[in-house]
C-alpha cells in the first residue's frame, strides 16, 4: 500500500527493500555467521510496479530468527553508503536535506542479542546520520510500549529473551 502511494503520487522518493528472517542472506555486511538471513530484495530507486509485484508475490514469512538490530544496522549502512556514493552535487544536496527513513514492518517477536550499551551507540549513529526509524506492527502502540500489562494479544516475547522487551522499548522510544 505504501509503495503504491509512492507510485501514484509520482514521488521522487527512492525506496529500497530489505527483509530480515529471510531464507537466504544477501547483504554487504554478511560474513560467516554475522548478519545472516537479512537480504536486500531491491536496491535504492524510485518505487515502481515491479516492487509492488515483488512484495506481493515473493516475500514469504519464515521461521528464521534475526535480531532486528542487526537488520537496522545492515539497512542503515546500505543507506549511508548509497548517500555517500552520490557524486552529483545537486542530488547530494537534495538527499542531505531530505528525510532518511527506515520503516520496519514487524511484530519484533525475535530475541534481541544486542546489549543496551551497544544499542545506545547504534541509536546515536542513527541520530548523527539523520535516520528516522518507524516501526509498524501489532502491539507497537505507545501505550503498549509504556505498559507491558496492557490487555490484548501477546507478542510472544518474554522478558527472559535477553531483556527483549526492555530493549525494544529503548529503540521505539
Automatic annotation (TrEMBL):
<dbReference type="GO" id="GO:0003690">
    <property type="term" value="F:double-stranded DNA binding"/>
</dbReference>
<feature type="region of interest" description="Disordered">
    <location>
        <begin position="142"/>
        <end position="163"/>
    </location>
</feature>
<dbReference type="GO" id="GO:0000723">
    <property type="term" value="P:telomere maintenance"/>
</dbReference>
<dbReference type="InterPro" id="IPR036465">
    <property type="entry name" value="vWFA_dom_sf"/>
</dbReference>
<protein>
    <submittedName>
        <fullName>XRCC5</fullName>
    </submittedName>
</protein>
<feature type="domain" description="Ku70/Ku80 N-terminal alpha/beta">
    <location>
        <begin position="1"/>
        <end position="130"/>
    </location>
</feature>
<dbReference type="GO" id="GO:0043564">
    <property type="term" value="C:Ku70:Ku80 complex"/>
</dbReference>
<dbReference type="GO" id="GO:0042162">
    <property type="term" value="F:telomeric DNA binding"/>
</dbReference>
<feature type="compositionally biased region" description="Polar residues">
    <location>
        <begin position="151"/>
        <end position="163"/>
    </location>
</feature>
<dbReference type="InterPro" id="IPR005161">
    <property type="entry name" value="Ku_N"/>
</dbReference>
<dbReference type="GO" id="GO:0006303">
    <property type="term" value="P:double-strand break repair via nonhomologous end joining"/>
</dbReference>
<dbReference type="Pfam" id="PF03731">
    <property type="entry name" value="Ku_N"/>
</dbReference>
Amino acid at each position: 500500500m505504501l509503495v503504491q502511494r509512492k507510485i501514484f503520487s509520482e514521488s521522487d522518493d527512492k525506496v529500497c527493500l530489505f527483509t530480515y528472517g529471510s531464507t537466504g542472506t544477501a547483504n554487504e555486511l554478511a560474513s560467516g555467521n554475522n548478519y545472516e538471513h537479512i537480504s536486500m530484495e531491491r536496491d535504492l530507486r524510485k518505487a515502481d510496479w515491479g516492487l509492488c509485484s515483488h512484495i506481493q508475490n515473493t516475500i514469504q514469512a519464515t521461521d528464521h530468527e534475526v535480531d532486528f538490530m542487526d537488520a537496522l544496522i545492515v539497512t542503515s549502512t546500505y543507506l549511508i553508503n548509497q548517500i555517500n556514493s552520490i557524486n552529483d552535487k545537486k542530488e547530494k544536496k537534495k538527499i542531505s536535506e531530505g528525510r532518511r527513513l527506515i520503516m520496519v514492518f514487524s511484530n519484533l517477536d525475535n530475541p534481541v542479542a544486542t546489549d543496551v550499551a551497544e544499542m545506545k551507540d547504534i541509536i546515536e549513529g542513527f541520530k548523527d546520520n539523520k535516520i528516522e526509524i518507524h516501526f509498524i506492527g501489532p502491539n507497537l502502540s505507545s501505550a503498549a510500549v509504556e505498559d507491558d500489562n496492557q490487555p490484548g494479544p501477546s507478542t510472544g516475547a518474554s522478558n527472559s529473551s535477553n531483556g527483549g522487551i526492555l530493549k525494544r522499548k529503548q529503540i521505539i522510544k
